[in-house]
Structures are given as C-alpha cells and as structure tokens.
C-alpha cells in the first residue's frame, strides 16, 4: 500500500454540513438585524474556521465587538444544531470501511470547533475514525500543519506514509505545509480548478477514487 494513514478534512469532504452552517449563520444574522446569507455565500465563506465564517457573513465595516458577539451567538446555536441536516456524502462510509479493513489508519483534522467536530464524527462514523482534531484555543488552525503533525505523532505514522484529503484551497495548502501529498475531492465546497491551482496531487471525483490512490 502507498499510505498507512489517511487524514481527512470534515466539512465538504466527509460530511455535507452546509445546511446546518447556513442555518446557524442566519440565526446569528437575525439576532443582530443583519441580512441573511445564501447557501452559495456560506459555501464560499467556510474553510478557515468559524470566526472567519462569521466575519465574512456580517455586513462590511461591522465593528469587531459586534462581530465577536455575533460569533458567540453562532457558536451557541451551532453547538445544539450541528446535526440537523448534516450527513455523510454518498460513498463515504464504504470508503472509510475499505480503508479500515485494509489496516489503514484514519483521522480528521478540521478547522471546525473541536467539540462540534467530535460530536459529528462520533455520531456519523463511530470508531471508523481513529482520531479527531478540531479548532481549540491556543493551537494554530489550518493552513498551519500543527493538527496534521499532532495526528501523525499519535498514530505513529511518518509523513512519507500519510496523505491528506480535503475539498478546498486551505486543505491543499495545509498538506503542502505539512510536507504530505493532498487528495482534492470535487464533491465539496470548491471547484476542481481551485484544487488544481492550489497544488492538489490527486483529484477524487467519487469516494472510491480515494481508496485507489491510497492502496
């Protein structure tokens, strides 16, 4: 096998979380009397953590104090509503099971809040995923490689035997910063052209493609 470990992004890669993210954003927007955001707008805003998502969602020139309050409202709502519409993409479960049955270790490294990430991964994937690392205070988020480095150390896998899978330019850059190859998936929140422009080493159009690249 080419790789001993596959590390995944979460939103837009393993799970379709866009509906719940949009609903949580718009709950916060309504609380402050701001215009709501469309699904396509939220799709473009995700990838750099929830603070960036909210900063892009509030009207331009919103002061930092108001944006921070809006972020707090978003976090509280999302904590209780992160699994209303969220589901795995078609073929994801069977892909993960194929990797697992061949002894390949799996992990998630995401800019999603750690608690929400653990809840989603635990409920949707159970023990198929070995480790989940989300955004926590004091730890650099993607595109910094800290999460990937932490996971590889925990799994006992070298960079030469690991690959990162994601759907955005942030994921491609994160993999590059960590010194491992990236599989870009085309069913997520960005176009294939974005993945190629940002250095994806492989392109997966369906989850089964990941198994082929890894094995």
Topology:
Elements: E1 5-8, E2 15-16, H1 18-31, H2 39-45, H3 50-57, H4 64-81, E3 87-88, H5 92-101, E4 105-113, H6 114-125, E5 131-135, H7 146-155, E6 162-166, H8 169-178, E7 182-185, H9 192-197, E8 202-204, H10 207-214
Parallel strand pairs: 1-4, 1-6, 4-5, 6-7, 7-8
Antiparallel strand pairs: 2-3
Describe this structure in words.
- By secondary structure, the chain is of the alpha/beta class.
- The chain has two domains: 5-16 and 86-214, Rossmann fold (3-Layer(aba) Sandwich), CATH 3.40.50; 18-81, Putative phosphatase, domain 2 (DNA polymerase, domain 1, Orthogonal Bundle).
- Helices cover 48% and strands 16% of the residues.
- The chain has ten helices and eight strands.
- A six-stranded parallel β-sheet has the order 5-4-1-6-7-8, with helices on both faces. Strands 2-3 form a two-stranded antiparallel sheet.
- β7 (182-185), α9 (192-197) and β8 form a beta-alpha-beta unit.
- α5 (92-101) packs parallel to α10 (207-214).
- The longest helix is centred in the middle third of the chain and has 18 residues, at 64-81.
């Amino acid at each position: 096998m080419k790789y001993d470990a596959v590390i995944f992004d979460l939103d837009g890669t393993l799970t379709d979380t866009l509906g719940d993210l949009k609903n949580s954003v718009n709950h916060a927007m309504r609380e402050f009397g701001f215009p709501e955001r469309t699904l396509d707008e939220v799709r473009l805003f995700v990838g750099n953590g929830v603070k960036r998502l909210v900063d892009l969602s509030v009207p331009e020139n919103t002061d930092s104090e108001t944006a921070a309050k809006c972020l707090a409202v978003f976090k509280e709502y999302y904590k209780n509503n992160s699994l209303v519409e969220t589901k795995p993409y078609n073929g994801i479960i069977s892909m993960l099971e194929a990797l697992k049955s061949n002894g390949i270790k799996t992990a998630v490294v995401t800019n999603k809040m750690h608690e929400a990430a653990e809840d989603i991964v635990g409920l949707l994937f159970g023990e198929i995923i070995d480790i989940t690392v989300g955004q926590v205070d004091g730890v650099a988020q993607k595109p910094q490689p800290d999460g990937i480095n932490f996971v590889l150390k925990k799994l006992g896998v070298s960079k030469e035997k690991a690959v990162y899978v994601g759907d955005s330019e942030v994921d491609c850059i994160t993999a590059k910063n960590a010194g491992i190859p990236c599989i870009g998936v085309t069913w997520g929140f960005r176009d294939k052209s974005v993945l190629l422009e940002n250095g994806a080493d492989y392109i997966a159009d369906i989850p089964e493609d990941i198994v082929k690249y890894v094995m």
